[in-house]
Amino acid sequence: MKRRHFLQSSVAAAVAASLPTSQALAAAMAAMSDVSRDVNAVTGSGAQITLEQAAVKELADSLRGRMLLPGAEGYDSARRVLNPVIDKHPALIVQPSGAADIMSAVTFARERELLVAVKCGGHSFSGKSTCEGGMQIDLSSFRSARVDPETRTAYIAGGSLLGELDHEAMAQGLVTTAGTVSHTGVGGLTLGGGFGRLARRFGLALDNVTGVDIVTADGKLVHANASEHPDLFWGVRGGGGNFGVVTSFEFQLHPMQRKVIGGDIIYPLDKLRDVLSFYADYVTEAPDDLYLDFAVFSDPGTTDGGVLLSTCYSGPESGADKIYSLIKKVGTPVDDGTRSVDYVALQRSWDNTDPRNKGSYLKSGFINEFPDQLVSTIAQNYKTFNERGSTMFFQHSGGAIGRVPADATAFAHRKSIANMFAVVEWPMNESRDSHVRYIKDFWKEFEPFTDGWYTNEVDDHAENKVNRNYQGNYERMARVKNEYDPTNLFRLNANVKPTA
Q1: 496 lies in some domain
Q2: Is 321 helix (H, G, I), strand (E, B) or coil?
Q3: How many domains, the chain?
Q4: Same domain, 321 and 334
Q5: Residue 401's closest CA among 449, 370, 366, 448?
């Protein structure tokens, strides 16, 4: 196989060298999309099927983008997601160049009832953006960001990363909520919710979406907003990938100065209870202009670690001293990284903290209050947790997020004050089983404090848990699913099963 692939690549390169640039590109694309055999695949229900060579070649020939089969150059990098313990092999990968390619891919998949995964940034902890034996639609070659400063609107292609949105918008003195790691996919973050350093001030990313173009399960491209396909527009804002593949987002932008005050403050582990008690008291009182995360972390195989407060204050500079003097009364830090900083640079500052070159698994849940009992439970349990090389952290919610009615979008968790996470990591040469079992047992101490979970961190939750998690919005979501995806083609998500 490798020898044949090498020869095919060599011939393609030799031919390409003798052709004009556009022809050379076309020749290279054709070589990558070569179809020489039938393809074994699986359906959404897990049944084994065979995709005939002629049908697969017809799909490949219809695309302006690439189609990759196992063994093709680029296949292995495309199938991978950031969590390296996820090691799945799609039967075929489509890398669309635009909406038309996505329409063709979705139609092909629907007609054969293929299992379908959609990958944007590949950040899904549970690996929902890849699949074993199905079709992966990899949007990594479908990226662009355009800003209209007059209407304060950003137009973002479906495969774009958050850094592209931040970069183009801030160049015009405009922003919207866009996560905390710039290589996160816009689509995955936004469709599930979209927390970030500005969410308490401007709302979730999905609260700032004014319209989407989306390829639904019938292979059609529709525009959804408050007046066109309003139920679909309601459902995609919080329903994740349940209803189709979004090819374009429209975001409302907000004026903001380029400089903010932000950075991380690190304390020694023996300050855990003091820092956490401060955080528990302050998290609901903080102004909307302040985003404040808490984390306690350790390194695998050691007892080294620390306690962290991560900050971003985007309000008037004159108000920063009062806020930061209050935060720093908690104790003497080991390191204080807070400073006046370019907002886009701050958005990139955590990029290297999320390389995921180790195995990892997480549990999470929203909290609506931060009682003393939760502080004590964390302080009492973290010593054992620390020995595993783990992190427990809280992502700040509230503010503008909580002033949106719970039924205004499919995202229901408006009353939360923070999202609580417990993450365990391990070297890749170790089995995941004991680590996953450990964190699930550890999480039993904390789950009673939670009220639902963030669908972007979805694991394999049972259907009744998914129903409860969407809370009062589930029944309407099921109606939207019945209309736009009655066969449940898009099921690798916090899945709403159709009832039609």
Answers
A1: no
A2: helix
A3: 3
A4: yes
A5: 366
